[in-house]
Write a structure and sequence with these properties.
Blueprint lengths: L1 H12 L4 E4 L2 E4 L1 H15 L2 E3 L1 H23 L10 H11 L4 E3 L3 E2 H24 L46 H19 L2 H14 L2 H17 L1 H25 L1 H12 L7 H6 L1 H12 L3 H4 L19 H9 L1 H12 L5 H16 L7 H13 L2 E2 L6
Parallel strand pairs: 5-6
Antiparallel strand pairs: 1-2, 3-4
Helix pairs in contact: 1-2, 1-5, 1-17, 3-15, 5-6, 5-7, 6-7, 6-8, 6-16, 7-9, 8-9, 8-16, 9-10, 12-14, 14-15, 16-17
Length: 393
């Protein structure tokens, strides 16, 4: 469990730390995870999963074909492909081919995961509450050396829409949306495996004080997935999850009606240009349509590594993971990438996590090159080789 434990802790604690290369920065979690993976392979603790290796080689093939196509034809958007971005993408994606050599007890594994996540939940709730006393830490700037910080470009401090309060980012995590997403995963694991009321309550409150819709999206996907995928047990779990949401909303209404109002505004912002919801879920598809319309061949080979975020378009836009991969490497590369996420044998609990975790990775942000989220989610649904527990708490 040492490999898994270090991946979990580094993914949660070191999100804001990295290595700087000129104007670029790389999360320190990437080198940590890859070196741990290499050590695990050398010591026999980890092995290569054959099915995911084939998917990875397919990804490498299509990226290589894209490089050949881009060498033969001039760039259509006057942006030069970044070799560093391509290498980083391939290195980080290679984490998906790893697998535990020996299966680990499922209950012990997920108990370790949720011990870490509930500490982040408590930290985020305290961070939000202490604002009332004018005590707040939302950035590490001035606390740790700037040379190892990679906070620039991330939304650490965002108004909650309730007085002067800021959305909680979990203290150690880098954005409120990421805090919300991790809390949703923790709540899903808790419902599936342990069903401890206190832990469920803490995760729900943490999601509320993050004021982010992405965690609720991940949790809603879980509700739909178990309702249709686990028979009567799934229906009961889904009803229980909906009841938890109801309890959280009632508490918010009784004790902090302004918070509930702010959450309601977040639910509709996807329809309003300029908001984070619109940027996250609408503009990526505008960008894809504009690029494919101008360069149809881009649907096969993309327009080059790192170029998706540097296009000159008549509007401000964002990219999620599948749009980024299609724009940079093409649709065949995306198919191989998704195969890296879904191929493999899993326990029933892991299978219930696959859909929400994949939605988190693909649609709630651009995480293909952000190892604190990529490695954590891959560990849960792919890398961890588990065996069902004889008894479950």
């Amino acid at each position: 469990m040492s490999f898994a434990g270090i991946i979990v802790v580094s993914s949660l604690v070191l999100q804001r730390f990295g290595l700087h290369f000129g104007t670029s920065a790389m999360s320190i979690v990437g080198p940590i995870g890859l070196l741990l993976g290499l050590r695990g392979l050398m010591r026999g603790e980890l092995s290569i999963h054959a099915g995911r290796l084939i998917a990875y080689l397919g990804l490498l093939l299509f990226i290589t074909l894209g490089l050949v196509e881009q060498a033969l034809f001039p760039p259509a958007f006057f942006v030069v492909s970044s070799p560093l971005s391509i290498v980083q993408f391939l290195l980080l994606s290679s984490f998906a081919v790893l697998s535990f050599t020996e299966p680990v007890d499922e209950s012990a594994f997920f108990r370790m995961i949720n011990k870490a996540l509930v500490l982040i939940a408590v930290a985020g709730i305290l961070q939000f509450a202490l604002q009332i006393l004018n005590l707040s830490i939302f950035s590490f700037e001035g606390i740790v050396p700037a040379s190892i910080l990679t906070e620039q470009g991330w939304n650490l401090t965002i108004s909650a829409g309730v007085g002067t309060l800021l959305k909680s980012n979990g203290l150690l995590l880098i954005e409120p949306s990421i805090f919300s997403q991790f809390m949703a995963v923790g709540l899903i694991i808790e419902i599936l495996a342990f069903r401890r009321p206190l832990f469920c309550f803490l995760y729900m409150i943490a999601m509320v004080v993050s004021f982010s819709g992405t965690g609720w999206i991940v949790f809603s996907v879980f509700i739909v997935g178990v309702a249709f995928g686990l028979g009567m047990r799934g229906v009961l779990l889904a009803l229980g999850a909906v009841a938890l949401i109801g309890v959280a909303l009632v508490i918010a209404f009784l004790f902090a009606p302004d918070v509930l109002s702010a959450l309601g505004e977040r639910a509709t912002e996807v329809f309003h240009p300029g908001t984070s919801g619109h940027m996250r879920f609408i503009t990526p598809f505008w960008a894809l349509s504009d690029v494919i319309g101008r360069v149809p061949l881009a649907s096969l080979f993309g327009i080059g590594g790192g170029m998706s975020e540097h296009l000159t378009l008549p509007y401000e836009y964002d990219v999620n993971t599948p749009i980024k991969i299609i724009l940079e490497y093409g649709i065949p590369a995306l198919i191989c990438y998704v195969s890296l996420l879904v191929v493999g044998d899993r326990t029933p609990l892991q299978r219930a996590l696959v859909l929400p975790c994949i939605v988190l990775l693909l649609f709630t942000g651009s995480y293909s090159q952000f190892p604190p989220i990529l490695f954590f989610m891959l560990l849960l649904i792919s890398v961890a080789r588990l065996q069902p527990s004889a008894t479950r708490s």
